[in-house]
Amino acid sequence: MGKMKKNKISYLLLDYGLLLALLLIIVVVSFISENFFSTNNMLNILRQVSVTGVMALGVSIVIIAGHMDLSIGSILSLSGVVVMTMVNDYSMDGVGVLMALGAGAAVGLINGVIIAAITGKKARTGESFIITYGMQTAIAAFTLLVTNGVYINGKGGGFHSQIGKGMWPIIIFVGMAIVFYLLMNKTPFGRTIYFIGNNEPAARMSGVNVKFYTVAIFVIAGFCAGLAGVILSSRVNAASSTAGNGMELDAIAAVVVGGTALTGGKGGIGRTVLGVVVLGVLQNALHILNVTTYPQMIIRGSIIVLAVLFDVLAGKIKEKGGKV
Amino acid sequence: MCEFALEMLGITKEFPGVKALNNVTLRVKKGTIHAIVGENGAGKSTLMKVLNGVYQAESGEILIAGKKVSITDINKAQNLGISLIFQETNMIPQLSVTENFFLGHVKCKKGGVVDWQGMQEAVKKVFDELGYTINPRCLVSEISAAEKQMVEIARAISKNADIIVMDEPTSSLTSDETERLLDIVRKLKTQGKTIIYISHKLEEIFAISDMISVQRDGEIIDTKPASEMTTEEVIEKMVGRSVQTEYPVRNTTPGEVILKVESVSRKKLVQDVSLELHKGEVLGLAGLVGAGRTEFAETIFGAAKMTEGTILIHGKAVKIRNTKAATRASIGMLTEDRKETGLALKASIKHNIVISNLKGICSAGFWTNSKKENDAAKKYIGQLKIQTPSVNQTAVNLSGGNQQKVIIAKWLFSDVDILIMDEPTRGIDVGAKYEIYCLINELVAQGKSIILISSELPELIGMSDRVIIMHEGRQKGELSKAEMTPEAIMRLAVS
Q1: Are A324 and B16 contacting, i.e. CB atoms less than 8 angstroms apart?
Q2: ipTM rounded to 2 decimals
Q3: In what order do the strands lie in the sheet with B4-15?
Q4: Which among B15, B327, B356 has CB closest to A323?
Q5: According to a count of CB atoms within 10 Å of the terminal CB, is the N or C end of chain B lower?
Q6: Closest residue of A to B361, CA-based?
Q7: What is the CATH number assigned to the segment(s) B4-239?
Q8: A7-25, pLDDT tens digit by residue?
Q9: Fold for domain B257-494?
Q10: For residues B411 and B332, is the Cβ–Cβ distance under 8 A?
Q11: pTM of this prediction?
């Protein structure tokens, strides 16, 4: 009995190690700096992570299904440029936002249709990785062409300029997180996504329309990246063709740090939110502790590597202990 | 010189909650074929993994040719001349036979250039000695399952293995291929190799082995010369109870036509196949591997594109564009490879059971209801006697027979009328096989119709109401229950 209990505790540790790490960071930094654990700063952190967070939510679903989407960074840039152009040149905020979201979803649709078409009987070999990389390159270049690489500064005012301000980014991020959590945990859709991530051929042979789901997840990821682009362009009141450069990896890193496996079928929305928040809190803490940019990046990078190592090791330990 | 090539004395291995091996003692004489039989979960594989250094036993010792050894990892085992050939071969399909043969220790000429010619000649030499006709340049994906096993054997021999362990080597082979493989095993024996042969197929065991050890619940129940044992005796010892007839009797008569397939073709793989399936009927599909049976089934199930033909269900033509459409038309399929295409192994039993009918666990339209899900899973676990501690157990931890039952549960929960079963008893033990047969009969009694694909002729004959025989994608004939004999089926299957 005692042994069982000990096992349970260590499993909890393995499962929620990241949460503990988060609490540890908060407690330690709170002692060092009194500004850190204030409502203001916490809201600030949430505001900062909302853009990557929304992207990460979308790409989580793609990753859980066993795919990858590298195009979300350039979708973010595209979306910002679309909405900013509409707002500036035509004064159409609402339509602009819808068009930006639509552009994101449309790019996702193209991704999805191509990847679904080559999704066959055999297990995947990472086509989505390289196809969305191609898409990323193409979309980034397209956005550069359209804007000539010039920053588009917003004029301010209007509906669009409010989306990135005050509580709105937080409301959107948290709202999306709740919706996605329900979608993935409480609906047949989510159930099917997990199953596909676990074993796509088996899903197909169980009567699942795998092609439909493949298209759907990329549309969702594209939509989320579009939404992130709208939030970011509103927050900084500007858009540029390079705004999203590298952000896809920030989002993916947050998903992985949260403990969602790149092999698919394992992980969840809650984990992604945790990953996003941990990386956000860490960055903020380092900032408050006056750590300069380069050491910050080294620490961030190391944390990402450690988190993955931890997950893999935890999985191994559980497998060894649990298997009969 | 010691009489025994291998002695495993008092081996005990525990996993959390389970004593997988309990004081097992196994003595294998040099130059003999020693069979180990037992139901899945009896601990055969665990015992072999201890021998191979994958697991460390808590107690007991291992002697090779009378000398005590400690086997801490696979390399150590290999150096001691022990080689394991697993059920699923570990070869890389995209590489050639030669490359796979030398995987991990490629031969190089001076200067680090790969010595292709040298390697090919070396492989050829080993193959010639064993009488193989496999071309070493072939890609592994192009050779048959039997040939893969044969390559594995040759590889083991080239590493100077004296003790060769074969774990279910014939589970995916046809009877012809099995014969060939058995011949090679006999040949190895004449060359003085010691073979430990693990299999469910008792005919095979009796055909080749000198000694038989029966393992059950982590213990060796009995070890005797094969000549002193009978099939019934072995089965009884395996399951710990006496087993009655091999195939349960069915007292139902098929009803009206439920599925009608008219001249269905799928490129060159399936050509012009027509058949009728009646309500409450088991229709057998016989043929050699590659006859197009699985390909035909996949076409009906919407997993592959039908190039020509019509499918009628209850007299109405249906268009089956994908597997989703097939399940909507009330067709389910149990695939031949449950690990690759049947189950999400890392997912729980309940998730595997409900995946084809997620609507069935929803309440208020589209929210999944975990109570409904658990109830459904529990219902089928009870009904099909799936042995598991809970509905949340991951599928990978179940034995083959129980995994197969989970897949059957999946289609029961979807309430399909037509179930295609492709090799439903492959790689599962005698007791579980019998249970699957009983299940088939229960399904039929409930008015479901079954298309049964099997490479085991006795099974086809024992279970089917009618048999259709296929050869190279075409149907070669049909036999009624009265006409079914192994000879009659084989005559049509090979023509």
Answers
A1: yes
A2: 0.86
A3: B18-29, B4-15, B59-64, B67-69
A4: B15
A5: N
A6: A188
A7: 3.40.50.300
A8: 666 666 677 777 888 888 8
A9: Rossmann fold (3.40.50)
A10: yes
A11: 0.76
